[in-house]
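This section describes the prediction task in plain terms. A model, or a person checking by hand, is given the sequence of a single protein chain and must write out its three-dimensional structure as a string of tokens. No templates, partner chains or ligands are provided. The sample shown here is typical of the held-out split.
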Amino acid sequence: MNKVFLFALAVSFLLFSCGPPNQDEEQGKTVFKYNEPGGISSLDPAFSRNIENVWAVQQLFNGLVQMNQDLKVMPCIAKSWEVSEDGTVYTFQLRDDVFFHDHVQFLEGKGRRVTAHDFVYSFWRIIDEEVASPGAYIFNYLDKSERSNYTGFVAEDDFTFKIYLRQSFPPFLGLLTMSYCSVVPKEIVEFYGNDFRRNPVGSGPFCFKVWKEGEKLVYVKNDNYFEMENGQRLPYLDAVSISFIKDPQVAFLDFIRGNYDFKSGLNATYKDEILTQSGELQEGYKGKFVLQKEPWLETIYLGLLVDGNSDLVKNSPTKLRALRQAINYGFDREKMVKYMRNNIGSPATSGFIPKGMPSFDAQKVKGYYYNPEKAKDLLKLSGYPAGEGLPTISIATTAMYQYLCEYIQHELNDLGMSVEIDVIDEAAFREMVAQSKLPAFTKSWIADYPDAENFLTLFHSNNFCPQGPNYTHFSNYEFDKLYEMALDEIDDSLRYGYYQQMDQLIIEDAPVVPLYYNEVVRFVQNNIQGLECNAMNMLTLKRVRKTN
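The expected answer:
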């Protein structure tokens, strides 16, 4: 309590005593500043696996296409494209005015023009086993047959680039917006080798300047960037500065002081200080900065191992579908989101596919809601009336989700279920989930691209972990059949119908307990304009303006 009191006191002092945001050292320069507590491991787009790396990479690099604020695929280096009628050949026409950043390895130190041959190299690099990029799965359907010269990627000329797939994959264009698919210059990558991770050269709106790992990362404006807005060349900012303070309270206080231009996410140490129970800014913060909220394509859930061949499942009561359904009915998601998360996010009562996904439809997919009487009936159906004789259910989690598990534990205990919480170190926890060593566990899934296939792939029988992301080892013939039909369907409305049928099958068999659909939460200083907020939680700085 003393710690909380001192923190609140410090915040109050800052609110009433601090002056305007700190000005950059160079008078007149606009520098966008933010803190990245998770750190950044690589600036090589081939390794932009987590959101910290993605945000950093997005400012330096471009791909063929990009996602706009409404999650629509838009032109980028590719000014136009065509898809064959069977959905297997993608032909891109590239701009001829895109250049890599200046570097001494280029002729006369000037960045050279980006061509289709650069994309052939960049994409082959992603699937190169020696590079071992975690983004290699993007090209799982690549066709390396005779029709593509046994490569899958073909540069017909300097500005015509083709990709060949073995079969139709409707979400493919969305995958190409990912940072993995950024174009990189072969001569620079080969010059630096593995050290390209900290000496990046791209074609993006900002150029790399300096990186003191664990301290500060600085980008400067690319004066030769190709994108324009209202006749003005992007970006508007002069520089971007990223720090790496891990302590959430210190970082929050620095934001209040004006040392950062935006703060992403909400930490339990200050959530009640800054937000009301209904998820709005506390009175003392209104007008001091802007609160941005947007549905985030992330589902937080409990996974329940359902593999009948596993000894863990044979000895666990969660092998019974009725019991898994009882767990789903046995706690109040709305109360959990309101009181445990200050109304950040939405109760997951409409399936596994999250709110904000184009195919999300709460009317067509009926999930679970709080119904203790229904839960008791299902307990009885499972052979455990009022929980009598029911073995203890162990839910494994990390410190991040411990508070949610304790809430669920309390709710289920009231129904007669004996639940224990096993808090495990994060690295060990991830490994145990990937190796199917936990009968019940907390997990989250964030969309890599805005198509529900990205979430449904967690339940396809070909994707059993550790080779794939099917952590529950769910297997259902009807689900698999619908999944394959969806992959062959180019028409969005028909494909979405398949997605909704699959989602309902997941709900009925209950290999997961959806908890809530997450929400992007950002706090932005009043002198920042043009910082877009979207359901993919992208950080796009090229259109941001800052007034001093």
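For orientation: The radius of gyration is 25 Å.
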